[in-house]
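Model it.
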Amino acid sequence: MKTILNVIWLVLSGFWLFLAYMVAGLVLCITIIGIPFGIAAFRIGVYALWPFGYTTIERRDAGSPSCVGNVLWLVLAGWWLAIGHIVTGLALCVTIIGIPFGIANFKLIPVSLFPLGREIVPTNQSFAAGW
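Modeled.
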């Protein structure tokens, strides 16, 4: 079932969100300081391409550097990517069939705003680990 959902997601919004994250990652990788942010954008871009069957969990070992990085991310790229998720989610919620995909878009907003200190894991792994 998750394969069918991922294919429909890819056609409706996944590819465009993936491209947005790749562009943000390339722009952020221009400077040496921005490389960790660019890597985070690439990681979330792959998650935005195939979101069904995966979830994000907070890393317990992430400390204050990830907090500072998230503030920088929010200013540099987070708002723009979150707006993309909001617009796409609202457009998908216009039809009954698109509502689950719109909700999936809304679930990606916190990750697009604060990606550092999070890890993307398969859904069954997060429940098995007790998160």
